[in-house]
Amino acid sequence: MKYVFISDDTATVAVDGRYDLVRSVEVTKEIQEALGQGCRRIHIDLTKTTYIDSSVEWAWIRLYRKVGDANFRLSGASGMVLDALRTAKLDKWIR
Questions:
Q1: Which of 19, 34, 59, 69 is packed most tightly, with the most Cβ within 10 A?
Q2: In 10 A of CB 4, how many CB atoms?
Q3: pLDDT digit string (tens) for 16-46?
Q4: Is 50 helix (H, G, I), strand (E, B) or coil?
Q5: Dist. CA 78–CA 95, nearest whole Å
Q6: Is residue 13 a contact partner of residue 46, using CB atoms and an 8 Å limit?
Q7: What is the pLDDT of residues 53-90, one digit of tens each?
């Protein structure tokens, strides 16, 4: 997998640079594969992500609903990414 790294029951997503519709489709496929392999927790590491668009936010909302609050978290958001999360009121997922 290119964007998702599995450790125990956690799938960690890391996207460098722009995380937009095109990458969102690729990442979502990888996350679905990880869930199929038994991952229950999703950690999205935004440390190296410089941009997200609304398609990514919607993908996260669907994923959040699927795995639940206790199993979903974001980390490392800063700059424009953090601003976008705050605007969409999704910054509550940063832990």
A1: 19
A2: 23
A3: 999 999 999 999 999 999 999 999 999 999 9
A4: strand
A5: 13
A6: no
A7: 999 999 999 999 999 999 999 999 999 999 999 999 99
Q: List the structure tokens of 24.
A: 């969102």
Q: How many CA atoms lie within 13 A of 34 on its CB side?
A: 26
Which residue from 27, 28, 7, 30 is spatially nearest to 15, judged by alpha carbons?
Answer: 27
Amino acid of residue 89? K
C-beta separation of 36 from 57 below 8 A: no
Q: What is the DSSP letter of 94?
A: B
Beta bridge partners of 52: 19
Residues 6+ apart with CB under 8 A from 95: 73, 74, 75
